[in-house]
Amino acid sequence: MLESAHIFVLLGAFGGLSLIVCARMVFPRRLFFASYLNFTLLFFASIVVSAFASLAYGLWILAVVSFLAMREYLSLIDIRLQDRLGVFGAYLSIPFMYYFIHIDWYGMFIISIPVYAFLAVPLLVTLGGRESAGTVFSIGAIDFGLFLFVYCLGHIGYLLSYSIWMPMLLILSVAICDLIAELVVKRLSSVSTSFLGRLFLPLPLTIGLSWLLSDWAGIPLIHALILGTLIPPLAMMGQRTGNYIKADLGVSGDALFPGRGQILDNLKSFFFAAPVVFHYIRYFLK
Q1: CA distances (Å), 59 to each of 20, 42, 52, 238, 267, in order?
Q2: Left if phi > 0, otherwise alpha if psi is -120 to 50, otherwise beta: which for 261?
Q3: What is the predicted pLDDT for the residue at 14?
Q4: Which of the 8 DSSP states describes residue 249?
Q5: Exposed end of the chain (fewer CB within 10 Å): N or C?
């Protein structure tokens, strides 16, 4: 049962973010971090729904985020028409994985994508047509998207099944890292300075946030501080990986919009942070 202070903070944060997003819709002016706010609101919505309604409903919100991310990614790669069975199998794995989280079947969750889906997709791709040229690329591209946008993001859902404040700590810490990366680091011309800025500027804020939320999240202070220290370099790794993926797919950072790299750009910082934070908590605290 949530305490009154928890309810006030949770609803206050969700309500404030909702007002900002609604204001952007009413006054369609260019707003810094605008698209990022939409996905942050979806993460907050999954937490609020899990806290006040049902974990299952909160997980399905995250499943929708994974589906949208996977759909955008598949629209950017040179996929063949005959690969449609493999694509269908990839989409079908999303509800199954989140169902395993819902019933707390960790053993099946952890192998659902990297074992069963990774085996099913190659078979489905070969069943989709007779043309063999391009098969290796199609299999690798679909499995790679499944790993990043479904499996890695799914770890946020499993954190949600432990405590609503665990994914809140992760989401807010990653948001801090992304905000600093956008506000400060992009304005630094030196590559070495940019690297140090991404790594060290968020640290005081993420460590402070971890300290503030440690009790509510049920994380001992020493482990909370370690997580606050780990998240900035993990977010930086995701940002770098995501930027290289965007560049290879021909997505310009100056022309992002839904269906053309915007979702990938907004979620890239979770690629490393979500699974590592989850497994750290599970290994040391569960």
Answers
A1: 24, 11, 13, 23, 17
A2: left
A3: 78
A4: T
A5: N
Selection from 19, 16, 6, 275 nearest residue 151 by Cα: 275
How far, in Å, CA of 183 to CA of 32, rounded? 9
Sign of the CA dihedral with 140 first, then 142, 143, and 145 last: positive
Q: b vs e for 170-187, b when ≥16 Cβ sit within 10 Å of the residue's Cβ?
A: bbbbbbbbbebbeeebee
pLDDT at 256: 47
Give the DSSP letter of residue 40.
Answer: H
- pLDDT tens track for 109-161: 999 999 999 999 999 999 887 788 888 999 999 999 999 999 999 999 999 99
- Digit-coded pLDDT (tens) for 198-249: 778 899 999 999 999 999 999 999 999 999 999 999 999 998 899 888 888 8
Residue 151 · residue 108 · CB < 8 Å: no
Could you tell me the pTM of the whole model? Answer: 0.89
CA-to-CA separations, 200 to 156, 157, 188, 213, 224, in angstroms, rounded = 24, 28, 14, 21, 17
Residue 53: partners with Cβ closer than 8 Å, 6 or more residues away: none
